[in-house]
Amino acid sequence: MTVAECRTCMAGTYNNNNTNIINQCTDCPNSYDQSTYSGRIPDPDSRADGQSECPWKCDTNYYKSGDNCALCPSYSTTDGAGSLSIDDCKCVDGKYMGGDVCRTCPANATTGCPRGTTADDIECQPGYTKNVSSDGVVTCTQCPPNSTLNGTNCECNIGYYANGNICTQCPFGTTTPTTGATSITNRQMNNTTRFCDANGENCMNLIPSGITINAQ
Q1: What's the CA gap between 90 and 116, in Å, rounded?
Q2: Residue 39's Cα: distance from chain center in Å?
C-alpha cells in the first residue's frame, strides 16, 4: 500500500479538496471571469497552503474590498497590482482625495495637488483659511478686509469686531483691546477724551486723556 505524500501545494496551485496531499493539488487558473470576479487576477507567487481557493490578488487600479476587488475612484490609480485598501488609490495630478472621491484642487492652495494628495495634505495660501466639509470638500477662503489669519482662523484687527462674515469698525471713540473681537460688546473706550454710548452715539468729552475704561 502506497502512502500519499503530505506536502503544501506548490506556488501557482491549490488544493480544492482542502487537504495537503500533493497529488490533489490543482493548477490555478490563468485568468478569472471578469463578469463574476471583476479586477481579480491570479497570484502565482503565493502558496495555497491547502486552502480550497486559489491565491488571488487585485489587478492594477483595483483594491481589495472584503472578498472582492473594487475599482479605484475616478481619476485615481494604484502603483501596481495587489492593493489592499482604497488608501492605495492615488488621485492624479491636479486632484486630491476627499471623502473617497478625487476632487479638483481648490483655488488658492499652496500647491497644485500633485499625484497622491489627500485633503489633509492641502495648505492654503497666506491670508486664506482652510475649510473641510463633512464630505471632504476643501475650500480656501480669503480672510475678510480688516482681519488677519492667526493659525487657521481669521481674526478681526484691533478696532474691529466680527459681525457675521465681515469685520466691522468699532463705533467712534471706542476700540478693542486685542485682535479677534467676536462682538461689539468686546470694545472699550480708546485713549481719547471722547466717550460714546453703547450705540456709538451721544459722544461727549468726559474722560481725561490717557484713561482707558471698559465700555460694556
Answers
A1: 4
A2: 27
* Whether 95 contacts 75, CB under 8 Å: yes
Phi-psi region of 17 (alpha: psi -120 to 50; beta: other; left: phi over 0): alpha
Closest Cα partner for 43 from 8, 34, 33, 53?
53
Measured at the CA of 25, the angle between CA 24 and CA 27, to 5 degrees, comes to 135
Q: What is the pLDDT of residue 215?
A: 42
Q: Does pLDDT of 132 surpass 50?
A: yes
Identify the top-confidence range among 21-25, 76-80, 170-174.
Answer: 76-80
The 3-class SS string of the chain reads CCCCCECCCCCCEEECCCCCEHHHEEECCCCCCCCCCCCEEECCCCCCCCCCCCCEEECCCEEEECCEEEECCCCEECCCCCCCCHHHCEECCCEEECCCCEEECCCCECCCCCCCCEHHHCCECCCEEEEECCCCCEEEEECCCCEEEECCEEEECCCEEEECCEEEECCCCEECCCCCCCCHHHCEECCCCCECCCCCCCCECCCCCCCCCECC
Give the chain's radius of gyration (CA, Å): 33
Q: Are strands 95-97 and 128-132 parallel, antiparallel or unpaired?
A: unpaired
Q: Which of 9, 5, 100, 104 is nearest to 51 (CA)?
A: 9
